[in-house]
Amino acid sequence: MLEGNGKDTNRSAVGARVTLTAGDQVYKRELAGTRGYLSSSELVLTFGLGKSDKIDRVEIIWPSKDMTPQVITELATNKVHRVRQK
User: Fold this and answer.
1) Where residue 6 falls among pLDDT bands split at 50, 70, 90?
2) Rounded-to-integer distance, Cα 58 and Cα 27, Å
3) Is 0.70 topped by the overall pTM?
4) Sheet holding 25-30: strands in order across?
5) Mean pLDDT of 71-80
6) How would you label 33-64 residue by residue, b for 16+ Cβ within 10 Å and e otherwise?
7) Are 76 and 20 in contact (CB under 8 A)?
8) CA separation for the pair 40, 37 (Å, rounded)
């Protein structure tokens, strides 16, 4: 699970695009605050990695003017990782 912590006005990181690589598998998610009319979503991204025992790479493109990806490597599985925007 990844929980975003954005800077400035978008502290919930809504709109952040995340690409996670675990072994030969690549997963992509975008953090959305809603799914439809009068709904809300959990502001945590959850990835089902199957038998993978580690996360090789996470690339986050934060919703901001600077579209430079933030890269994090070698994360443990079965944990919640809180990521702060740089």
Assistant:
1) low
2) 10
3) yes
4) 25-30, 17-22, 54-61, 70-76
5) 92
6) eeeeeeeeeebebebeeeebeebeebbbbbbe
7) no
8) 9
